[in-house]
Write a structure and sequence with these properties.
alpha/beta; TIM Barrel; 11 helices; binds iron/sulfur cluster
Length: 297
Amino acid sequence: MIREITAKSMLHYHERTFSTNWDANIYRGCEHNCRYCFAQYSHRYLETENSLETSFFKDIFVKTNASQILAEEFGKRKWKKLPVNVCGISDCYQPAEAKYKIMPSVFNSFIMHKNPLVIVTKSTLVLRDIELIKELNKVTDVLVIISVSTLNEKKRKLLEPNAASTIERLKMLREFKNIGCNTSVLLMPIIPFLTDDQENLDEIFRITKEYDLGSIEAWPLHLHGKSKGVFYSFLQKHYPELLSKYRLLYNKGSVSKEYHADLQNRIRELKKKYSLFSSYKPTKPKTEEWVQPILFD
Ligand code: SF4
């Protein structure tokens, strides 16, 4: 069920720098239904606010006044035009966006205030708004990121049932590269025993290089709280033979030190092989300090 809500504020600071420290979540909950989704914890707070039991993947909240509130916040004297990620804990190009069409008005607020933008998506619906993003990219920095796990479509459909195929995402990112946006690939999460084979990792690196997508970062799956239960149920249904291996590997919520070290070595070698790096280079000079948290009036 999709519920329309009005937001009181949009810009949220978080300690963890993930391209930026600022999020503005247009949607809460995500229909992409990735079986490993890290963001499921975020619905707990909505349940408290609304006294409802909600499903992260089925009960989607859409902030219908997002662009208006963003424009007001961007206009505040103390706001320093820091980059804002519009897909922090939910994908702003999930299927609901095809109906609600909130993102064009959100981009108009960014354009009006020349505010740098970060988009992280697993959907090709973002191409619908490429002209607006191109316009914004003329006046400030735009970084478009895709996250991908596997080129094996059979596994991808099980793991990320409502997202675009991995190759479609990579091709979509190339279009944003071609119009001059900064682009980056998150090879994330790498899922032990399912997507961590050398052939898959190498091929994603190879295409990233061939399409000239700039930078790539890779990280293994973390399993905490609700995400762990949902992922283990997924394994039980589709890969029951892996459950005991996972219990050994994830006895602390993250992969074992040995697995992590081995994977990081392999990623380092792939980065060397394809001359790819972890961080992107902004195409426009930074006119403001980008990393300090800003307090509103
Ligand atoms: S696209 Fe991102 S937020 Fe949406 S379900 Fe997948 S991992 Fe979660």
